[in-house]
Amino acid sequence: MTFQDAPDSKIPVPRGPLPVVPPPRPRRAVELTIDGQSVAVPEGATLLEAARQIGIDTPTLCFLENLTPVNVCRICVVEVEGSRTLVPACSRKAEPGMVVHTDSERVRLSRRMVLELLGSSVDLSTAPQIPGYMERYDAHPERFGPPAPPARDHERDLARPGHHHPPHDGHAATVGQPVKVDNELYVRDYSKCILCYKCVEACGTDAQNTFAIALAGRGFEARISTEYDVPLPDSACVYCGNCIGVCPTGALMFKSEFDLRQAEAWDESRQTATDTICPYCGVGCTLTVHVQDEKIVKATSPIDHDVTRGHLCIKGRFGWEWVNRRE
Amino acid sequence: MDLHFTAHEPDPEEMEAVDRRLAGLPLNGHRRQYLLPVLHAIQDRKGWISPGALNYACQRLDVPPAEAFGVADFYALFQTRPHPPVTVHVCDDIACHARGAEALCAEVETALGPAGESRDGHATWHRSPCLGLCERAPAALVVASGDPPRDQALAPATSGDILSAAVGVPIPQPDLATSVPQTGEPGLKLLARVGRIDPTSLDDYRAAGGFLALRRAFEMGPAAVVREVVDSKLVGRGGAAFPTGVKWQGARSATLPRYLVCNADESEPGTFKDRVLMENDPFALIEAMTIAGFATGCEKGYLYLRGEYPLALARIENALQRCRERGFLGDDILGDGVRFDIELRRGAGAYICGEETALMNSLEGRRGEPRNKPPFPTEAGLFGAPTVINNVETLVNVLPIVIEGGKAFAAIGTERSTGPKLFCVSGHVKRPGVYEAPFGITLGELIDLAGGFDGSGRIQAILLGGAAGAFVTPDHLDAPLTFEGTRAIGATLGSAVVMPFDDTVDLRQILRRIAQFFRDESCGQCVPCRVGTVRQEELLHRLATDRPLGSVAAEVALLKELGQAMRDASICGLGQTASGAIESALARLPIYQEKTL
Amino acid sequence: MEETDLVILWGSNAREAHPIFFHHVLKAIHRGARLYAVDPRKTTSAQWAVSGTGHLPLHVGTDIPLANAIAREILAAGLENRSFIENATSGFDDFRRSVEPWTLERAELVTGVPAAQIRELAHAYARADRAVLCWTLGITEHHNAVDNVRALINLSLLTGHVGRYGSGVCPLRGQNNVQGGGDMGALPDRLPGFQHVENDALRAKFERAWGVTIPPKGGWHLSGMFEAMEHGEMTALYVIGENPANSEADQHRTMRLLGGLDTLVVQDMLFTATAELAHVVLPAAAGWCESEGTVTNSERRVQRVRRALPPPAGVRDDVEILCDLARRMGRDLGNPTAEELWNELRTVSPPHAGMSYARLEAEDGLQWPCYDESHPGELYLHGRLWERPVVGPRAPFKAVEHDPPVDELTDEFPIRLTTGRHLDSYNTGVQTGLYASPLRRKAGIDLHPEDGWRLGVAEGDPVRVISRRGSVVAPVRFDPGLRPGLAFMTLHFPDQVATNELTIDAVDPDSGTSEFKATAVRIEPMRPDGTDARLAGRQETHGSALHRPRA
Fold first, then answer.
1. B36 in helix, strand or coil?
2. Mean pLDDT, to the nearest integer, of B293-320?
């Protein structure tokens, strides 16, 4: 406490020096060329950061500022002169003298193909970024044929690595399957999963460190799963909902949102989002409270808030139900 | 960690299997690395990995169960659902396909029932990708759990032998000369001891010149050994053809600790040379690894062996034991104060683990998902430490380099492809097998060495370099087999697979099998490969069944785009090469014709 | 926090009680920092501590012996920060003498923590370049809470782990505005900004600003109020946003006293057990989502709360209710907005002076002190102690002596019952009882399996838990993270199991906090046929009784 106990002391105590944060290690500047423009970034910066610095918008799906880049979706690939293959902008560090092209034919083809491959295999209907990307890269997922019928419940969870059913005549295989609803807080619709690994990272060392879910299976049958596909209430899940917070496609969704969507009552145009502070402990997490028709429909946290970095616990994420009991 | 476990409990056998495997191991630091060995122990004992057993393994190793399940569920040799104790893996990959695999599968199906099912609860069977026994195709692997477990590779396999092996009858295997027709010929450098010594005897190995290279290396000192390797211009034999000397030089200046890894996860379809070396000259690999460890300053080596090689496993295990007993491994090798030892690790059925960074993840007890490069293993490899990783054949080449000198070695072969080379010849040739020849031998000369074409004699295509390689035609018989020579004909040497197909083989089925292979073996991490290999297989299926979307030309164009994206945007070599052989076939061979009405 | 080298969580299960704070601890751990957890239970937090030695399982209520032994070991090994002590502290010699008797061996005997572990923590803490020491209610819910805190502060002064980036001490607050409430003067003897009401000059400043006369003596804290009720000195009580009927120790007594009041007014957002006793209930808006204002977190960060939705019909903002009440009582305070009230506060509380609403918005909150609009707020406190010579008064060591829990363990009451939180629930459960948490466990009593075996009960069996004050029936759950002789309950489900019928109201004279953490109990298995009427009646009721009060 800066304040003295005794009633007669000077209040407050004399001002001390301002606290100092040790300066970060100085970083060299790295100069490179992106789309003909030269740009200087601090050593260690990624090509994505470098491109953003000069206003080049790079599409991303598996990248999020509060998670370690896994560079698996490959939509952010760019061409680096002298490199045999394209490189992921989200994780490739800028090097001195690099010459980078972010919109070459090769880049556009790969980005378009990533979108078509995802679009032909995954339900992207609740992925907010996708329509814009599809248009920008003129992607036509239907080129690979009509979608094959969805899998039965748990069928994909039982797939064996290294084995698959022969192709469904003339149809494009998808990850379609029934929604997993095993608790009252959130649902998992893996028909919408692009396997970006974000939920696994948020459940793991990047935030929650609970490790309730991981990648299981292999290849096209790879999937996010608990051990032996046990329902969430039997798993290690602590319902922090940080996986929902980072999911880019709506595969992981608040049950409240899911139910409203099922009833065709979800309407973002009628929603407000208000930042406030979670009441449940003294840490001071910013809660963004989403309200539709005077009811809280979900709670999130801003990714750039330095207390939460976008992450919450079960109480903050879901503990608002009582407010909706209006009688 | 505050781990959470389901209520499933292990049974006493499972606990004993785990405890026995972990006995005496230092369970601190990187203890997760023992996950794969422990999963093997459970699988070997019980035939599948039950939830209770997994929980127990996780408690012992402090690994979250969801992650451990994800690891177990990644590998084809692990069963994560109740499974009969005996599993027969019948190879239906391209080399075996050309040698009657389909007929064998049909017979096994008649005897055991549909694949994956079990009539008697005792045995079941699965189709398998290449088992690395192509020279004796068709092949099968019988795996029986128990204490001890019994694994037997059969080639050539008959349904009768398979059923006998499934009930525990040992089946004698053909003479080594079947696999190495050059056995005993003079002038061989890599195969010199193969077939001439008892591969289980350290004394035999020493009598045949074994460990002379190690003594010589200790006399020379690490820097001089590396210099000889640089002078030899040896490049990696695993497929990427990176200069070994450069890799070693880089390692010498890296931070400590560093690790040496031998990539013995040979699983490129059509490839079996490393298996033959390890089965028949295991001490040579250990000697070579010890020299590599000495030269690069690594005190610990890992040998990651393909899970489907039971004989190589037994031979290497024995050789390691003999070497430790006799001071050729340990804290004071040859009394020279050099410290080096090797841990043998078994893969579990995943082609992708032949990719160096996937292999390191697998060693660490993680899913075999390749890492993004950079950083390269020499900077941040196993456990994040600088790591030298070399293929089996590459390492074995170090022995003649140390004995004869780098310059002498460089004089063999061509200017840019130096030294002797092992080739895996299978398919329609008269004498399939591993052949040693200097770089520069032509394709035609090699086929002559293997007794010439077999089958109908009318060869429509020759696969070079494996499933990740390319098809050439009999027009290319004059091409020299070197890195540069194969590149010049739009192919790749890859893992030195040479596999001719005669005109009785339906190449459309071969291409589909290759596409199926990549779809099955994709780790699933990146979109271009995970979905791209599915779309490629679907497309070839449509072409093979004459039901193209639009026209054949449109399908071929789509395949090209797909191939381009996989090549450009995949994380690792698997996705980058998954369309190579198929595209080469489409470009060179008249396989798919537009139907005209 | 993320850049510190060593973290001590003392009497704190942050993994469950402060999960997002614990994320930052985990970042530090992944970076290589070491965690030590001092806790009678092997909590989920303790499971992240240094493998094998990082969890120090002390007997409940032996924090001071442990702290003193750590101090003695640091001194014995010559690891104290001499120059810091000489420059910035006072009372060191008395302190040194006071810890002298606390050898490792004696401490092991009293605390139950092996001497080697005490030694390891002492050395690790003293040698760490940066170290943070955090505590929660495991320290403060004791009859000698303030002494417990002082014992920990002594350690930070001894090692100089205070007032530097990455080094410090921190109480982790249990609610979003515990800190802010105190800052705003919701303490019996303080005006806003911690200005003492008995300081004439300070009081005069407020009297001038507010145009009123302020009583010149400090008032009662919560436990003092109940004392006063007992003696008939207090007959009317106005409760705002608190549920003492469930949350106070020794519930029998609490209910008796609350029931005997002439006037009980409850202003709350939910119809709590306390509201059921009230003569007047004033339905109030939820502070965190139905009204505007600020709260202050454990790092002194003042943050804005905002109205995300309007309160239900008839439910009003706290400020509105208070102003209306004032009007009825003859004083018109107008209809101030939250921002107007805040700006008034800034004129009388120097450490808040620089925090305009505009800045709080733009800068994502500010940490006090923030003396003027150009002041950035302070990331950590006490940096002045490192100035030479020290700026302001020296930081005092305070010799503190062991004083075991009031509720003694005897043959009749041999089990030590302690209390705490579960991850998904909050305090008396009035808010968190209403969402469908899959993690929720029925209220019960956690025992070590060995105690269960001795009692002859299986998991799920009901037992009667009896203290010197009352008894409850609760089902048993086994937790190997406890030790034999130690039991654990939460306060989350008072409708199912009224834990506070057991707890003792032994109170710290300075903080007024009761000793919730140390109750002596006896546990009796239920007769095989004896289905207890109280249990049967209550088991299924949780959550359903609570509804928002109507106007």
1. helix
2. 97
Question: What is the C-alpha to C-alpha distance for residues B554 and B545, in angstroms, rounded to an integer?
Answer: 16
- Are A27-147 and A178-324 equal in CATH topology? no
Inter-chain residue contact A72 with B51, CB threshold 8 Å = no
Say whether A211 and B1 touch across the interface (CB within 8 A).
yes
Whether chain B has a CB inside 8 Å of the CB on C303: the answer is no
Among residues 9-38 of chain C, which lie with CB inside 8 Å of chain A? 17-21, 23, 26, 30
Contacts of C329 (CB under 8 A, 6+ apart): none
pTM of the model: 0.94
pLDDT (mean) for B220-243: 94
d(C-alpha B551, C-alpha B558), whole Å: 11
CATH number of A27-147: 3.10.20.740
Residues with Cβ within 8 Å of residue C325, at least 6 apart in sequence: none
Neighbours of chain C (3+ CB pairs under 8 A): A, B
Residue C191, pLDDT above cutoff 70: yes
Q: Which chains touch B (3 or more CB pairs under 8 A)?
A: A, C
Instruction: Please report residues of A whose CB lies closer than 8 A to that of C197.
Output: 7
Angle of helix B392-404 relative to helix B212-220, nearest 10 degrees, comes to 70
- Whether residue C299 lies within 8 A of chain A, CB to CB, comes out as yes
Is the domain spanning A178-324 CATH 3.40.1000.20? The answer is no
Query: CA B38, CA B75: separation in Å to the nearest integer?
Result: 14
Tokens of A139: 């992607």
* Secondary-structure class of domain C6-172 per CATH: alpha beta
Peptide linkage before B375 cis (omega within 30 of 0): yes
Distance of alpha carbon B332 from alpha carbon C121, whole angstroms: 39
How many whole angstroms separate alpha carbon A65 and alpha carbon A198? Answer: 11
Residues 27-56 of B with CB under 8 A from C: 28
- In chain A, domain spans: 27-147, 178-324
Residue B23, classified by CB atoms within 10 Å of its CB into exposed (0-12), middle (13-18) or buried (19+), is exposed
Nearest CB among A109, A211, A228 relative to B51 is that of A228
Whether chain B has a CB inside 8 Å of the CB on C53: the answer is: no
What mean pLDDT, rounded, does chain B reach?
A: 95
HSE, side-chain direction, 13 A CA sphere, residue C456: 5
Give SS3 for A91: coil
* Model confidence band, residue A240 (pLDDT cutoffs 50, 70, 90): very high
Q: Which residues pair with B343 in a beta bridge?
A: B302
* B137-186: pLDDT as tens digits: 999 999 999 999 999 999 999 999 999 999 999 999 998 888 999 999 99
- Which residue on chain A is closest to C25 by alpha carbon? A207
Judged by a CB distance cut-off of 8 A, whether residue B1 touches chain C is: yes
CB atoms within 10 A of CB B585: 22
pLDDT at res. B120: 86
Residues C240-255 have a mean pLDDT of 88
Q: Are C446 and C479 in contact (CB under 8 A)?
A: yes
ipTM entry: 0.95
- Cβ-Cβ contacts under 8 Å, B535 against chain A: 117, 120, 144, 172
Q: Which CATH number fits domain C415-547: 3.90.960.10, 2.40.40.20, 3.40.50.300, 3.40.50.2300?
A: 2.40.40.20
- Partners of residue B3 in chain C, C-beta under 8 Å: 47
Query: How far off is chain A from B74, nearest CA to CA, in Å?
Result: 5
Instruction: List chain C residues with CB under 8 Å of A307.
Output: 20, 297, 301
Domain extents in chain C: 6-172, 415-547
- Residue B1: its chain C contacts at CB < 8 A? 47-48
DSSP element (H, E) containing C42 = none
Mean pLDDT of all residues in A236-260: 97
CB B276 within 8 A of CB B180: yes
